[in-house]
Specification:
This protein is of the alpha/beta class. The chain has a single domain, classed as 5'-nuclease (Rossmann fold). It has eight helices and five strands, in the order βααβααβαααβαβ. It has helices at 6-14, 19-25, 36-54, 63-77, 87-95, 98-103, 105-117, 126-135, and strands at 2-4, 32-35, 81-83, 120-123, 143-145. The protein has a five-stranded parallel beta sheet. Helix 1 (6-14) crosses helix 2 (19-25), helix 3 (36-54) runs antiparallel to helix 4 and helix 5 (87-95) packs across helix 7 (105-117). It is globular and about 45 Å long. The two termini are 20 Å apart.
Length: 148
């Protein structure tokens, strides 16, 4: 099972013919999933952008454009199976060092989720994950680079 990182999901949603989308299509549907950690991150970022425009902090894009983007995001997310982040994953994350958590709370929680479920993180951001793996003395098979 592969849990997609934010950057792989973003790449696949923006470019359906790009490397991430091709890699996703090359695997069985049951081998690809989104952790609710990544889903939460994507939706939160889109809602924050809408709020920023609504609060007149940014003139562009328009609220209508952002609404369309939000609908497209929700529809795009619906194409993937989603796996709920759970207490066992949080327990794994809590055992990570402070250094690993500072590298990235979302990345470290995604990795904890994958480790607790025996899954592999698919990412284009090996630098942050390598720092967490090194800090926690974990092996590389927990993470795969899909954009290099």
């Amino acid at each position: 099972m592969h849990y997609l990182d934010h950057d792989i999901l973003q790449n696949a949603l923006k470019d359906p013919t790009g490397p991430a989308a091709r890699r996703i299509r090359s695997l069985p549907f049951d081998d690809i999933a989104l952790s609710t950690i990544v889903v939460e991150e994507k939706i939160s970022a889109q809602l924050a952008e809408i709020k920023s425009v609504r609060d007149h902090r940014r003139p562009r894009p328009t609220l209508a454009d952002l609404g369309v983007f939000l609908i497209a995001l929700i529809n795009g997310l619906g194409e993937y199976q989603m796996v709920p982040y759970h207490d066992e994953a949080e327990s794994v994350w809590r055992r990570f060092s402070g250094r690993s958590k500072r590298v990235g709370a979302v990345d470290s929680r995604l990795l904890a989720h994958a480790l607790s479920d025996g899954a592999v993180v698919a990412t284009g951001n090996m630098q942050d994950f390598a720092a967490i793996l090194s800090s926690e003395d974990l092996n590389q098979p927990a993470v795969e680079s899909w954009l290099s």
